[in-house]
Amino acid sequence: LPQFFTQGLSVANYADSGESSGSFLADARLFPTMSPLIGDGDVVLIQFGHNDKQTSAEDFRANLTGLIDGVRDQGGTPVLVTPIVRRWFNDDGTLNNGTALHVNGLGVDLPAEMRGLAEQEGVSLIDLTALTKQLVEELGPDASEALYLTNEADDNTHLSERGATEFAQLVLGELRAQSVIPADLFR
Question: Is 164 a residue whose pLDDT tops 90?
Answer without folding.
Answer: yes
